[in-house]
């Protein structure tokens, strides 16, 4: 009888372990499928920034194949301008402190063109508390950035045109509030745009 009890306990333990392994396998399979299917580029680097994994969206957005990217340092794919250096230093400082960083990066595609990335990069901490990896999730925000640049240029062009008109010009919105005055209108009224 006691041998049957031990055998029964061992069988129950084995089933429990099999259920746990099956659950872990299913969870891992779902995670892998989700990462592979994501529309955002996902990169996993080691603690030094060398790429260990990229998903298909990374390949599509950057033009680099996984084989081209693996083992290369993440900096290889970023633009190298003076303003980028300060941004990257701030990002690295935050990541080294174990914090998540979110912001905008500019990366180079395989064809040499640049693309603006809305990026979130998270440190992955091991059991001993040290950072072992970084996970980056990036989306292409190039169209939004280009639209912002075009809007700013249009506003600058409009301001230059309005300021060059030889008559006093006051522009109001639909409620009658002054939204723009050219320098001649400021001279004529004695008000600055901010006072109007």
Protein model, in words:
By secondary structure, the chain is α+β, with helices and mostly antiparallel strands. 47% of the residues lie in helices and 24% in strands. The strands form 2 sheets. It has a 5-stranded antiparallel β-sheet with strand order 2-1-5-4-3, with helices on both faces. Strands 6-7 form a two-stranded antiparallel sheet. Strand 6 (170-172) and strand 7 (178-181) form a beta hairpin. The radius of gyration is 28 Å and the shape is elongated. 14% of the residues are buried.
Shape: elongated
Quaternary organisation: single chain
Mean pLDDT: 86
Low-pLDDT parts are none
N- and C-termini, Cα separation: 98 Å
Helix amount, in percent? 40-55%
Biggest sheet strand line-up: 2-1-5-4-3
Report strand %. 15-25%
Short descriptors:
single chain; elongated; alpha+beta; 196 residues; 7 strands; 47% helix
